[in-house]
Amino acid sequence: MAAGTHEGGRSGRHLEARPQEAELREALRAVIDPELGDNVVDLGMVPSVTISADGAVVAEVALTIAACPLRTQLEHDVVARLSAIDGVESVEVRTTEMDAPTRAAVMARARYKAREGESATAVPATTRVLAIASGKGGVGKSSITVNLAVALARRGLEVGVLDADIWGFSIPRLLGMAGGIEARGGKMVPQELVVEPGLLRVLSMGFLAEEDKAIMWRGLVLNRAVQQFLQDAHWGNPSYLLIDLPPGTGDIQMGLARLLPRTELLVVTTPPVAAQLVAARAADMARKGYLRVGGVIENMSDFTCEHGTSYALFGSGGGQRLADEIGVPLIGSIPLHPDLAAGGDAGRPVAAGDGELAAVFAELARTVAEEVAPIVETAGCSARMLDRVAAAVARGGGDGPKDPVSARD
Which of these, 57, 86, 277, 314, could form a disulfide with 12 (CB 3.0-4.6 Å)? Predict the structure, then answer.
């Protein structure tokens, strides 16, 4: 069954230098199943990938369930990665359903990874976890996190916001929130902020420490703080959990890959080439940790003056160049506008109001919710199977056919 064809690949090679199957498969290792937390090649989800003399690629993708709601997302990721290869002119994705032995092998691998890696968290399996990342500081990552969260809540969604920038926390100020954290049943209760018709639940070191005092933690202590925010908190049942990461590729990023391997990254950059090159490291870190990169957001793009003239004060094209380089879509471009900083300083996110910037973030939220990371019913897909995997691991189940995850799932 043909799922779709993409035309217009990059034709930098001559016909005699078309990429080989091994190169195509290597590129597909960057396509991560966000629920199984591994790449589609190692999971055995790519039975075949071929390229013809004219650069037409046909990739077969085997799904655990033929009607899996994540099919479209996986198809888009496969097309994006293969289309980014020089010499590929078109990509056709054909989806099939795994046979029982293949499905059993896939779930055995997921069972192994669950036993060796992920710790239990308080974040429901149905929550889409989006980490907002950047290669360097000063690109407006926290402002993007806050305004995207508000825009998603304005769509009627319940959204969790975790400020994982332990040293440089700023989420409480940007949202105009203050006060401490209540404990209930030995677990933290996130502060709530109503954003009609939705709701934000927020946790940050800013609720636990003085804003002007340095937090001088390193390594394991930092990871433990993030672990507690994820494990020892009443997150409820949010549709999304947005995690504001510290800049760079350090301990917290690596710890998050272990704690929540289904995390997906949105990479924030600014237009200059230097920022683009640094941001690429965040994407590389994600893929080395088997995290899916959902897209790029360019912040501080063109400034438009009151007379309607636009100026590229920080250059142009960095977001699109980064998206092309790492094979993901550019999902938003946020203009340079003084109201964005002013709204953050006042604790009134621009996405909560009206006007140009609110519309920009509303469109970003639409893209995230409908294209990049849609909320899907996964009762018949791998999420349900992973719940059974987790249960088997908790019981200390064996690896043999007696495990509750079997071909009938």
Answer: 86
Q: Does the 2-107 domain belong in CATH 3.30.300.130?
A: yes
* Positions of CATH 3.30.300.130 in the chain: 2-107
CB 339 within 8 A of CB 147: no
CA trace torsion 338, 341, 347, 348 (10° rounding): 40
Residue ranges, comma separated, of all CATH 3.40.50.300 domains in the chain are 128-372
β-strand partners of 266 = 132, 295
Does the bond joining 271 to the residue before it have cis omega, within 30 degrees of 0? no
* Helix (H/G/I), strand (E/B), else coil: 188: strand
pLDDT in tens, 191-233: 999 999 999 999 988 887 654 444 444 444 555 777 788 888 8
| CATH 3.40.190.150 given to domain 128-372 | no
Strand ranges, E, within 256-388: 264-269, 292-301, 303-304, 310-311, 330-335
Q: Poorest-confidence range of 110-119, 302-311, 320-329?
A: 110-119
Q: Helix 141-153 crosses helix 356-367 at what angle (to 10 degrees)?
A: 80
